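Tokens for STAS domain-containing protein. Go.
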Amino acid sequence: MAAEVQPRARTVSVEGVFDLAVAAIIRTKLVHAGCDSVVIDFHGARDVSDVALAHLALTITKLQSPHVVLRGLGQHQERMLRYLHLDDRAPDAAASFT
């Protein structure tokens, strides 16, 4: 299996509960990321707070850089992000999700 290596990309893995405290930590990591792209991986999260996800979405939309990819979200969270216009189908999307 071949994989494209992006030297200016980072991954942040979310484990356990994703709440406002964790969202604040990730916000700090995004602000100081120093890279072109960040992947936030929710595969290890057992509980994702809607409020915390909305807070993170607001942070992402205010950032000039990096581009953020959200992975491992459930259908409900993906739908919520679409409602917040954080959708990978938008031409000027600040984030995408897989």
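The chain has a mean pLDDT of 82.
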